[in-house]
Design goal:
The chain is an alpha/beta fold and 306 residues long. It is 40% helix and 22% strand. The chain has two domains: 9-175, P-loop containing nucleotide triphosphate hydrolases (Rossmann fold); 190-297, GMP Synthetase, Chain A, domain 3. The chain has eleven helices and nine strands. The structure holds guanosine-5'-triphosphate. Residues 17, 19-25, 69, 71, 128-129, 131-132, 158-161 line the site of guanosine-5'-triphosphate.
């Protein structure tokens, strides 16, 4: 629900924790069901936004921390370091641990580096799966964790059953900075899907054009229309820096863009598990630096042209 106050807030929240801590379950509760489709496939792309939740007039944007999402036997230093790449820019960080497992090696590894990585951002501790332990265990765990790191707040939650989730969400809403909403509210539910679809097209383009336009294009999903027959109509705009780039993108008789469109459509369709109609348009946007900033605000790294 939104209210009419102009005091909006918007900010990025990084949810970190070991694989299986319950991050996806929590996200689904806070953001909505659609995210669940994305969550387990998102690693294949560079899109970093996992979902956006509204709480009153606050827009809470959850960013991905890839290193910690990959299911592995145990966390090592490299994984933890990778995870911080998402958390480092966040306005608020939430460390999620499992009540019944306590302070594992993985949690220790995160705690070791947390201080260096989060800067001034408030860090909350969310002890999840409280349905699995006695209250006395929780109190001891809270004490031990807070002795290791000065968490701004500690929440005891069950992401699955919903206990404590509202309190955490309300706290997040008041902890992110004041400022205008970053995403239109009618796009929030589709946002991760829109971004992933745009990334897929961009990837096909950079693969195809490699040397010619290495870092000089961005793709945005402008339209997303679910059709009654179960298919999706997706409109994307490919932004280039100069008019001269348009011709390179189109190729002879539009061949390049046609091939790219076909490959992208196939991949998006496979990802969504449904039929996709993809429409691509090329436009010039000369303010490249502005563009770069905008892109990185969305959690995407478009200069990474590997
Ligand atoms: N008992 C209990 N189980 C929970 C709770 N929250 C999550 N789970 C379970 O824990 C398991 C892992 O949850 P996920 O949400 O997939 O965990 P994750 O941190 O996203 O895991 P990765 O995607 O591997 O990083 C699932 O089987 C959930 O059903 C909870 O509050 N209580």
């Amino acid at each position: 629900m939104t209210d009419n106050t102009s005091n909006t807030r918007a900010g990025f929240v990084a949810l970190i924790g070991e694989p299986n801590a319950g991050k996806s379950t929590l996200l689904n509760r806070m953001v909505g069901a659609k995210v669940s489709i994305v969550t387990h496939k998102v690693q294949t792309t560079r899109a970093r936004i996992r979902g956006v939740a509204m709480e009153g007039s606050a827009q809470i944007i959850f960013v991905d921390t890839p290193g910690l999402f990959r299911p592995r036997r145990r966390l090592d230093r490299a994984m933890v370091a990778a995870a911080w790449s998402g958390a480092a820019d966040a306005d608020v960080v939430v460390l999620m641990i499992e009540a019944h497992r306590g302070i594992t090696d993985g949690v220790e590894a995160i705690l070791e580096s947390i201080g260096d990585r989060v800067g001034q951002a408030p860090v909350a501790l969310a002890i999840n799966k409280i349905d699995r332990v006695e209250a006395s265990v929780l109190l001891k765990l809270t004490e031990k964790m807070n002795a290791k790191f000065p968490f701004t707040e500690t929440f005891m939650i069950s992401a699955e059953k919903g206990y404590g989730v509202e309190d955490l969400k309300k706290w997040l809403a008041t902890s992110i900075p004041e400022g205008p909403l970053l995403y239109p509210e009618d796009q929030i539910a589709d946002l991760p899907l829109r971004m992933i679809a745009a990334e897929m097209t961009r990837e096909k383009l950079t693969l195809r054009l490699h040397q010619e336009l290495p870092y000089q294009l961005t793709v945005e999903t402008e339209g997303w229309e679910e059709r009654p027959d179960g298919s999706v109509k997706i409109d994307q705009i490919i932004y280039v820096m100069r008019d001269g780039h348009k011709g390179i993108l189109l190729g002879k008789k539009g061949e390049t863009i046609k091939t790219v469109g076909k490959l992208a459509r196939e991949e998006i369709s496979e990802f969504l598990g449904r039929k996709v109609h993809l429409f691509l348009q090329v436009k010039v946007r000369p303010n490249w630096l502005e563009e770069k900033e905008r892109y990185s605000e969305m959690g995407l790294d478009f200069s990474d042209g590997n």
